[in-house]
Amino acid sequence: MKVLVVGSGGREHALCRKLARSPQLTELFAAPGNAGIAQDATCVAIKPEDVDGLVDFAVREAVDLVVVGPEAPLVLGLADRLTARNIPVFGPSQAAAQLEGSKGFMKDVVARAGIPTAWYGRFTDVESAKAFIRQKGAPIVVKTDGLAAGKGVVVAMTMDEALSAVNRMMGDKIFGDAGNELVIEEFLDGEEVSLFAICDGKTALFAGDAQDHKRVGDGDTGPNTGGMGAYSPAPVLTPQLQQDCMDRLIVPALTAMAEAGAPYVGVLFAGIMITKDGPKLLEFNVRYGDPETQALMARIDNDLLPVLLAAAQGRLSEVRLDWSARKALVVVMAANGYPEAYEKNTRIGNLDQAAKVEGVTVLHAGTQAGPDGEILAVGGRVLGIVATGESVKQAQDRAYAAIGRIDWPQGFCRHDIGWRAVQREKQG
């Protein structure tokens, strides 16, 4: 099989590494890929948002399956265009991708399906949004309706913070048109977990869980980021809670989307808060999470390619996923300054030494090869140091041992990834 993976981040490198080991694979392409992905796939210089370019390439190369990493091309209708050319695609249609493309749409679907979630309101003008905030009080959550690269969310602990978020998102348009409409919702207290389900429009297959670390600094301090690290599985998600989430959050959403004429195909990523009243949905995303995917892929024991193809072809009931008992953890290394303005084109050394630590894989996100073949950091989140172990503590120790070998003075990481799980392990 010829497979094309769309995207250039750590999530796509994790997917490429996993797919590259499939006995069914004959050729793997990545568009556009990065310096690490180039070791596992043939990189082609097509941007994820270039839908025409991606479709033309897939047709020309007679690609057997397209696996879409990021959400933007899905919201732009890439899956529909590929389906029209009879190319199987792992990723939802444009209509189904609105589950992430519009937070308001997602909340309305969730309400119709009776899925436990936060109360909310949708607003297209500043004054009514502020009036709602004053009525409800703080803490409260303010979100852009449209895509804002994972940054259009403010968890406001005070009224002033919430009102300021409305001014910046809708008034100052700091996220552009994504802020034309706002969703304002209840602040949910509890422990957050990411759950993934692979779907074929009618069937949902549990596809792993993880816990992400969004804040940039140790101790969950500083601004939100795209994610500074993750581990899998999440101990908070007991087998009973996992089944509850599938039955009460995932399956009703799949049913609601099918009834709306937009059957959901691809991976459905549920951000869930485990509250004192049970699991409640925070949001749906229409793609694998990053960095969670980097830890998830390290725990899948069987061949992923036939599973993704079966989902694309509506045959999910024929396949399964086998999970290792290993724990997996990923620590993100980012460029100094991230998530604000960050340094670019700095040289990274000793990655081969880091990868020699037992149980460690080095995944690339914002990298490219320099003129002499050296690895340069060109993005905000640059590397994912993935480690597996018999315990989260062992995986954590291995990841940080590998980071200690990397020569990159212009990079940084959090030093406490996995702290909740390590604490639980200590308590037995």
Descriptive account of the structure:
This protein has 428 residues and is of the alpha+beta class. It folds into four domains: 2-93, Rossmann fold, CATH 3.40.50; 125-180, ATP-grasp fold, A domain (Dna Ligase, domain 1), CATH 3.30.1490; 191-318, ATP-grasp fold, B domain (D-amino Acid Aminotransferase, Chain A, domain 1, 2-Layer Sandwich), CATH 3.30.470.20; 327-427, Glycinamide Ribonucleotide Synthetase, Chain A, domain 4 (Alpha-Beta Complex), CATH 3.90.600. 30% of the residues lie in helices and 28% in strands. It contains 14 helices and 23 strands. The strands form five sheets. Strands 10, 11, 14, 15, 16, 17, 19, 22 and 23 form a nine-stranded antiparallel β-sheet that branches. A five-stranded parallel β-sheet has the order 3-2-1-4-5. Strands 6-9-7-8 form a four-stranded antiparallel β-sheet, with helices on both faces. Helix 6 packs across helix 9 (239-259) and helix 7 packs antiparallel against helix 8 (159-171). It is globular, with a radius of gyration of 21 Å.
Layout of secondary structure:
Blueprint: E1 2-7, H1 10-20, E2 27-32, E3 42-43, H2 51-60, E4 65-68, H3 72-75, H4 78-84, E5 89-90, H5 98-101, H6 103-113, E6 120-123, H7 126-136, E7 140-144, E8 153-156, H8 159-171, E9 182-186, E10 191-200, E11 204-212, E12 215-217, E13 221-224, E14 229-232, H9 239-259, E15 265-275, E16 278-285, H10 292-296, H11 305-312, E17 327-335, E18 346-348, H12 351-354, E19 360-364, E20 367-369, E21 375-377, E22 381-389, H13 392-403, E23 411-412, H14 419-427
Parallel strand pairs: 1-2, 1-4, 2-3, 4-5
Antiparallel strand pairs: 6-9, 7-8, 7-9, 10-11, 10-15, 11-14, 12-13, 14-17, 15-16, 17-22, 17-23, 18-21, 19-22, 20-21
Helix pairs in contact: 6-9, 7-8
